[in-house]
Design goal:
Number of helices of chain A: 0
Distance between the termini of chain B: 35 Å
Structural class of chain A: mainly beta
Oligomer: heterodimer
Strand content of chain B: over 45%
Largest sheet of chain B: 7 strands, mixed
Radius of gyration of chain A: 13 Å
Helix content of chain B: under 10%
Order of helices and strands of chain B: EEEEEEEEEEE
Largest sheet of chain A: 6 strands, mixed
Largest interface: A-B, 21 and 27 residues
Strand content of chain A: over 45%
Order of helices and strands of chain A: EEEEEEEEEEEE
Distance between the termini of chain A: 41 Å
Number of strands of chain B: 11
Shape of chain A: globular
Number of strands of chain A: 12
């Protein structure tokens, strides 16, 4: 069975400092992995997706994620946080048959 | 612009009423989905449809119904049998390529029982 674990429910950073949101997955085969962002009362927006073409995936708004098979991780990073990055972030694994498994989310707080 | 449109954004339901949430997409995607999101939690799959006139139950289908008469439309009805319907509902559609299937979401609809 495939699952995904987001290790932190909340992450607080100061504006201009690096962001690290952690995600570990379990999968019996090479997974498809995604990061989505959700701002309050909004739908989910795709940040980036892992397609097995490259282990380092670049997404929108300066975010990137690195797929590490040996660590079963797909952590999301950004070199410098902006106030507009404050939101909920979801790590997602494709369970196959057109079903996704969502992590429980990490709320990113950005202080001035 | 292409996208997924959900309406209404906010909906209030009285006890015992059925209500229908609309979802329309002009992305020409075959597959569509309905998810429920409760505060502080992840998303849970209600129903999904791979093609017109076909749909399958997800993980929490009880108390919900759907139809897929047109490719563009996938409405969700929350019936009176759903005992705790207050939640944020998200519609999505899927872009499928040989490489990867990617899901895109609408802006969501809030349903509150009054």
């Amino acid at each position: 069975a495939q699952s995904v674990t987001q290790l932190d429910s909340h992450v607080s950073v100061s504006e201009g400092t690096p962001v690290l949101l952690r995600c570990n997955y379990s999968s019996s085969y090479s997974p498809s992995l995604f990061w989505y962002v959700q701002h309050p009362n909004k739908g989910l927006q795709l940040l980036l997706k892992y397609t097995s073409a490259a282990t380092l995936v670049k997404g929108i708004n300066g975010f990137e994620a690195e797929f590490k098979k040996s660590e079963t991780s797909f952590h999301l990073t950004k070199p410098s946080a902006h106030m507009s990055d404050a939101a909920e972030y979801f790590c997602v694994v494709n369970r196959g048959f057109q079903k996704l498994v969502f992590g429980t989310g990490t709320r990113l707080l950005v202080s001035p | 612009d292409g996208g997924i449109t959900q309406s209404p954004k906010y909906l209030f339901r009285k006890e015992g009423q059925n209500v229908t949430l609309s979802c329309e997409q002009n992305l020409n995607h075959d597959a569509m989905y309905w998810y429920r999101q409760d505060p502080g939690q992840g998303l849970r799959l209600i129903y999904y449809s791979q093609i017109v006139n076909d749909f399958q139950k997800g993980d929490i289908a009880e108390g919900y119904s759907v139809s897929r008469e047109k490719k563009e439309s996938f409405p969700l009805t929350v019936t009176s049998a759903q005992k705790n319907p207050t939640a944020f509902y998200l519609c999505a559609s899927e872009e499928s390529t040989l490489e990867l299937a990617t899901i895109y979401f609408g802006e969501g609809s809030w349903l509150t029982v009054v």
